[in-house]
Amino acid sequence: MAIKQAVFLCLILFATILGRGKAWAAGAAQLTVGSEYTSGKYGGEDKTEIWYFPLVGKYTLGPWLLKVVVPYLRITGPSTITTIHHHMPPTQETTRRSTASGLGDVIVGMSYALYENPAAGVLFDLIGNIKFGTADPDQGLGTGENDYAILGDLSKQIGKLGIFTGWGWKNMGSTPDLPLQDTWYGATGLSYKISHQTTAGLTYDYRGEIVDGGSKLSEATLFVAQKISPNSKIQFYILQGFSNASADMGGGVALALQFY
Question: For position 174, what pLDDT does the model report?
Answer without folding.
Answer: 84
